[in-house]
Amino acid sequence: MTEEPPAAGGSLAQILEERRRKAALLTASGVRAWGVDFTRDHSCKEAAELAPSEVGVKGRRVAVAGRILRLRPSGGITFADIFDASGRLQLLASADGADPKLVQRLGELDLGDIVGAQGVLIRTRRGEPSLELSGLSLLAKALRPPAGKHTGVVDTELRYRRRYLDLLTTPEHQIAFRQRSAVIGSLRRTLDERGFLEVETPILQPIPGGGEARPFSTHHNSLGTDLYLRIALELYLKRLLVAGFERVYEVGRVFRNEGLSPRHNPEFTLLEAYQAYGDRTSMMALCEALVAGAAAAAAGAGPVPESARDLAPPFPRRTMVELVGDRLGVDPLALWEQPAELAERARAVGAAGPLPDTSGELLFAIYEELVEPTIDVPTFVTDYPVEVSPLARRSADPRFCERFELVARGRELANAFSELNDPVEQRRRFEDQARRRALGNLEVPPFDEDFVEALEHGMPPAGGIGLGVDRLVMLLVGAPSIRDVVFFPTLRPE
Length: 494
Hints:
16 strands
């Protein structure tokens, strides 16, 4: 795949050759094409706002800098539009101006060049705030033209693969990423205000625990040992609860060696928080505060879709058994000892995927295939089977755990539970996982003896939550794919 060819002015190869020739001529004449310092005192937006309101009135003298994305001669005047992070400002050089040579110098530049400009602010006859040039410096010569001068980068694959071109030529695409930054800032503020301490835990781990996913592996040469990129943050944050830190959180990248989809990228951003002496109920309150704050932050940084405006708590709560029962038309608990019949009921209403043999795993599989995609309004789905919740505390009904997920628009946004702090039970569950791994399920992590030893020192009762930041941003900005909210998503090689 290549960049979009220019609409006019020759082939891309010819344009590249011509721009390199220009750069060489500049160097030969003693003009630096790169590495030039320039001090600006106003952004483009600030300068435009300071322009005089009347035509013919000279305004303030300013220095601005930006990239040329429009260049047009008109009689004895040459106009250029430069863009910085704040917006656009028009430059003009006239033959009867302070320096007539500026008309030629401005006209010799190319689209994409980065310049520093000095001059006096005016307003043109058409009412355009403009900078009448008295000085012009080339700060960085662009050897490649910006793609899609009028249309931006229209090829979706190219947008993801050459993100810098997309954001450069279509600045409105930057809005979702500014909203993403505002959301992450809001998540941190909500936790900081509640006394949580932000910490950092290892990305390279000897055992990738805290979830079920195939990890990425690497090798440490000096130690002579294999290490793994983390698949979750959980187990090291819980070690800090053992250490006496009562409220901790981390916002970090995690890595899962899995397929690509509109909801999955091999590396993604996860928030996990743990609160000593908390439980599932306190995590629900925290989750509502996190989401409500993030929604307000996203709306304050840009437009949000209608679907992101109904996120005010409290969120409804439904048990997994209730939801599956509504779908199947029968109470799953009544068929708990007859998993074959439960599976038959599921197939009768459309279940097509492989179904497990045990009732707990079967209930979860039915829920994931037939129910979760249909949940539109943000909902706390509670009481997950213990077989699929190896780190959560059991409920009064020992078949289930004190766990919930926040689901909205058919996707899981958050996963939380009352944490299991019983080292004997945790060892038993890890042993069950180890047996599944021995049977060939490589998504199940190896037995983590060090974590069990940490629990044996005593971990206070606690609540914990994991929130998928990318999926939350997708919901808040109305993005159809995770690639639309990740600056540089993972892609297949060209």
